Amino acid sequence: EKGAYEHFMLKEIDEQPAVMHKLVQEYTNEDGSMKIDQDLINAIEDADRLYIVAAGTSYHAGLVGHELFEKFAKIPTEVHVASEFAYNQPLLSKKPFFIFLTQSGETADSHQVLTQVNEAGYPSLTITNVANSTLSREATYTLLLYAGPEIAVASTKAYTAQIAVEALLAKALGVDMGYQEAKDFDVRKELSIVANGMQELVDEKHDIEKLAQKYLAKARNAFYIGRAIDYDTAIEAALKLKEVSYIQTEGFAAGELKHGTIALIEEGTPVISIITDHTIASHTRSNEEEVVARGANVISIVSKDLAKDTDQIVLPTVHPLLTSLVAIIPAQLLAYYASEQRGYDVDKPRNLAKSVTVE
Ligand code: F6R
């Protein structure tokens, strides 16, 4: 039910703080210990490498998961697009463990890989929003997203829920293996800080609506740029904008722009930069200047501790490995409002289906 909302997409964007709280409840105890099946933890610890396989937005959540599993659990991790992996399988490690990220649990491309994985006898985990979905039934283990039904075709709350579940799992693994980084990562506290930050951002949605009107309502193309984890967020932000507003949008590694793509920048081209990582902030700032010099309209999405007075969107400060969870909120809102302002069917963009059950 949409209730007071005109579209499911906006409702689902607004639900994200509650989903964070729900995940903390489902996966942690008040004393800080984790509620994750020990058999699953043991099976992953037995592996020498994680292979995350997914499509679309779920793949983008996997890119962030890569950082979380390597930093907190110190397990080498690869992330693969399901439709590529299925036909061009990489050389696998001796003891692989597969993680399927899928909101619906029904995506044919991901299912095809799981079928191959099962034939080869490798262990697997499906992280999904739908209990008893095909990928959940066929994988060795399941973790649920508890995001509630996602109706809008463009995925929003499933993306942030997937990243949160990856953070919870990485924490549980790292603690079980005795790593200090994981012990120091107070995931309950950090996800609560994220939830509050998300709430602040959704409460300011009308500022974002105005930015969409000013920079995107008439745009022909656009870019999201970022480095490191901000690059992971930029790719998802770009997918959101293109799929609902039909503005051709690319998510780009900020430093790579000058190696060719900068040729596309014209007077008025919107370039949205994401800056949450202090180690790379000055570099992305230089890339902003490069595109401004070529006429771009830069919109900066910047963490509070790195922000300047002129930055249009300021993000509440959260744990450095969880910044995607807050940085994506204004990007989802920009996409939503741009689509609405251009008069499109926000919840059902052309040519798309909620669950892609063909290869
Ligand atoms: C984009 C979107 C799609 C899905 C993709 C995978 O907003 O929703 O890119 O993320 O089709 O779907 P699931 O996660 O159901 O496997």
Summarize it.
This protein has helices at residues 8-14, 16-27, 38-45, 56-72, 82-85, 108-120, 134-138, 157-176, 180-184, 187-203, 205-215, 229-245, 281-292, 323-341; strands at residues 49-54, 77-81, 96-102, 124-128, 141-144, 221-226, 248-253, 270-275, 297-303, 313-315. It is of the alpha/beta class and 359 residues long.
What does the secondary structure layout of this molecule look like, with pairings?
Layout lengths: L7 H7 L1 H12 L10 H8 L3 E6 L1 H17 L4 E5 H4 L10 E7 L5 H13 L3 E5 L5 H5 L2 E4 L12 H20 L3 H5 L2 H17 L1 H11 L5 E6 L2 H17 L2 E6 L16 E6 L5 H12 L4 E7 L9 E3 L7 H19 L18
Parallel strand pairs: 1-2, 1-3, 3-4, 4-5, 6-7, 6-8, 8-9, 9-10
This protein binds fructose -6-phosphate (F6R).
Global structural class? alpha/beta
SS elements, strand count: 10
The major sheet is characterized as: 5 strands, parallel
Helix content: 40-55%
What is the N-to-C order of secondary-structure elements (H for helix, E for strand)? HHHEHEHEHEHEHHHHEHEEHEEH
Strand order of the largest sheet: 2-1-3-4-5
- What is the straight-line distance between the termini? 31 Å
Average pLDDT figure: 97
As residue ranges, the low-confidence spans are none
Shape label: globular
Count of discrete alpha- or pi-helical segments spanning 4 or more residues: 14
Rg, alpha carbons: 20 Å
> What hetero molecules are bound to the protein chains?
fructose -6-phosphate
Relative strand content: 15-25%
Enzyme class: transferase
GO biological process, one term: UDP-N-acetylglucosamine metabolic process
GO molecular function: carbohydrate derivative binding; glutamine-fructose-6-phosphate transaminase (isomerizing) activity
Main location: cytoplasm
